[in-house]
Structures are given as structure tokens and as C-alpha cells.
Specification:
CATH topology: TIM Barrel
Strand content: 5-15%
Order of helices and strands: HHEHEHEEHEHEEEEEHEHHEH
Number of helices: 10
Number of strands: 12
Largest sheet: 8 strands, parallel
Number of domains: 1
Oligomer: single chain
Shape: globular
Structural class: alpha/beta
Radius of gyration: 19 Å
CATH superfamily: Aldolase class I
Helix content: 25-40%
Distance between the termini: 56 Å
CATH class: Alpha Beta
């Protein structure tokens, strides 16, 4: 093989024993899960905001940001259920570039996967300890999910991963809501097939074990827009797009139809400052159709402390080093406005 085997990493069981959740944190996570599960099982009409930085690049700024979310949470908790994004591994279209804290705990240093595995667990644990939030992360590598499986309350499967069999089958064995994004080409049938696979039970190989999953009834859609043959963004958050998705769900016969709408990526054309307008349009659509109101469970918003983004070597505290994000002042204003509009 044309690779060097550098070192064997500790198993997820070992890392969890090194950094275990206390009884109190387990109870808090269970409480968070119960509230979130009710939304995706149709038992609660709270509006979910999966919100946070494009990538979790540094612990101090991420925890600062989540602490601010905790303060806003108290003002909107009757209507809005906040789930912070702590995305610790990032897909790269060409494979090049910053791949997230899992690979590089220090973005400006060489990759160190051992430090990365520990860093991402400690970050998610500190968020739970300091704010009571159990957060969301992307399942870029299904095997690696085990390092965080007892901490996460929400999991996303990305546009480039949604056709992958291992992602779909692993999602079917998780006990938290899993959002399946539409692929970059925009074909909703691919996303619906992924949700179908995730909601069904399967026998497959996972982490050297033959396992049997029980199906995940909380698997749902994430609309993130797409790109056409010319590379131009094609949004899919409009009223007509939501009605179309609802028709797909009706034809599929899937349990618990639901969607989280991503206000950035191809839906905004990566114009981060369009996210508030897009968010409000989606809520407006909900007011015009009972079907859409039932279908839309919430939004996914890319937000950080400072507006925009910077280069990887940048030193602006709380500014994204990957996709541009909505800054904190605009974020807080948007959350409060959404609570008024719902």
C-alpha cells in the first residue's frame, strides 16, 4: 500500500474511559434529547435552530460563542430549541485544505489525529458542562462517530456523503435525529432514498462487528441548495421547493416527515449575509401553508462571533477560517426576530 502506518489510535471505548461523562452530564444530555426527539416525532411544535460556526477551529472562541447562545436561549426557549453546531471535521471538495479539528487541533500546525480525537471530545464535553448544550456535528466518517456518540444530540450527513452506503446504514443505528442533506447535484430522490435507508433496519459490518440496526424514525431531510451544470447555485428553500419536498414525502410513505432548511451553502450562494432574509422567507412560507408548517422543523444557520471569514493563517478571534458566517450581533437579532415571527 502506498501509505505509512504512523500509529494505532485508541479505540472509542478507551477515549470515553479517559474522558467520561458524569452522571449529571448524562442526565442533561438525556433531557436535551427528549425535547429534541419530540420535535422530530411530531409531538412538539418548537422550532429548531442548528446554529454555529462553519467549522470549530479553536476551543476558546467556540465556547465563547456557545455561551452567548446560552444567554439568548433563555429569551426564546418557549418557541425555539437551539442546538449549537460544533463541526469538528470538514469535507473538502478536492480533499485539500483544512479538514477540521479532528485532523488539526491547531489549524496552523501539522495534522495530529491522536490530539484531534481527544480535542473534539473535550470540546463537546466542555460545551455540555459550561452551557448545558449537547450539540450537533457532521458524521463525515461513520467509524469516528463513536468517539462522540454519547455526547451529540444531532447528527448531519453531508451532501457529498448522503449517497454513501455506510453513512446511510450507520444513521439507521443512531438514537438521535439525523439530517440527510440533498446532494450537491440537487436530486431530491437521492436524499429521500437516504432517509428511507436510515429509517429501516439493517445488518452490516461496523467497527469490525456484525451489527443489526433498528432503524431511525427521526431521520429527516436537510435542504441546502445545489449547483447546476455551470456551477451556479440553485436554491431550494422557496415555497415551491418545500411543497415539492412534501409531495416526495407523501409518495414515499416515510414516517415523521420533516426538514431542516440550511440557509447558507448553495441556498445563499455562500452570501452569508443573506441568511436572515432566507430564514424569514421560510417562516413566511410556514404561515401560508399548514403542510409546510408541519414539514419544516427548523433551520441550519452558519454563525460565529465575527462576520465573514478569513484565511487559514488569520488571527481574527471568532471569525470563520472556512465558509463565511453571520456575526454575533446579526445572529442574536435574527434569533429574537424569528421568535417574534413564529
Amino acid at each position: 500500500m502506498n501509505m505509512d502506518f504512523k500509529r494505532e489510535l485508541p479505540t472509542s471505548r478507551v477515549v470515553k474511559e479517559m474522558y467520561p461523562l458524569s452522571t449529571e452530564l448524562n442526565e442533561q444530555k438525556k433531557k436535551n434529547d427528549e425535547e429534541l426527539h419530540k420535535v422530530f416525532l411530531g409531538e412538539s411544535d418548537k422550532f429548531v435552530l442548528v446554529i454555529g460556526p462553519c467549522s470549530a477551529d479553536r476551543e476558546d472562541a467556540v465556547l465563547d460563542y456557545i455561551g452567548r447562545l446560552a444567554e439568548v436561549r433563555e429569551k426564546v426557549k418557549d418557541k425555539i430549541l437551539i442546538v449549537p453546531r460544533i463541526y469538528t471535521n470538514k469535507p473538502r471538495t478536492t480533499g485539500d485544505g483544512y479538514k477540521g479539528m479532528l485532523h488539526q487541533p491547531d489549524p496552523n500546525s501539522n495534522p495530529d489525529m491522536l490530539k484531534g480525537v481527544i480535542a473534539i471530545r473535550k470540546l463537546h464535553m466542555k460545551a455540555l458542562e459550561q452551557t448545558g448544550f449537547s450539540c450537533a456535528d457532521e458524521m463525515l466518517y461513520p467509524e469516528n462517530h463513536q468517539y462522540l456518540s454519547d455526547i451529540l444530540s444531532y447528527v448531519a450527513v453531508g451532501a457529498r456523503s448522503v449517497e454513501n452506503q455506510q453513512h446511510r446504514l450507520t444513521a439507521s443505528g443512531l438514537d438521535v435525529p439525523v439530517g440527510m442533506k440533498n446532494p450537491t447535484g440537487g436530486d431530491l430522490s437521492i436524499m429521500i432514498n437516504a432517509i428511507t435507508a436510515a429509517q429501516h433496519s439493517h445488518t452490516f459490518v461496523y467497527s469490525k462487528w456484525e451489527v443489526e440496526s433498528h432503524g431511525n424514525p427521526m431521520a429527516h431531510a436537510i435542504l441546502r441548495g445545489s449547483a447546476n451544470q455551470y456551477g451556479r447555485s440553485v436554491p431550494n428553500y422557496h415555497y415551491e421547493d418545500l411543497q415539492l419536498l412534501n409531495e416526495y414525502y407523501i409518495k414515499s410513505g416515510l414516517a415523521n416527515p420533516g426538514v431542516i432548511v440550511d440557509t447558507n451553502h448553495a441556498n445563499s450562494g455562500k452570501k452569508w449575509d443573506e441568511q436572515p432574509r432566507i430564514a424569514k422567507e421560510i417562516v413566511h412560507s410556514m404561515h401560508h401553508s399548514e403542510d409546510i408548517r408541519k414539514l419544516v422543523k427548523g433551520l441550519m444557520i452558519e454563525s460565529y462571533i465575527e462576520d465573514g471569514c478569513q484565511k487559514l493563517s488569520g488571527d481574527v478571534y471568532g471569525q470563520s477560517i472556512t465558509d463565511p458566517c453571520l456575526g454575533w450581533e446579526k445572529t442574536e437579532k435574527l434569533i429574537l426576530e424569528l421568535a417574534d415571527l413564529l
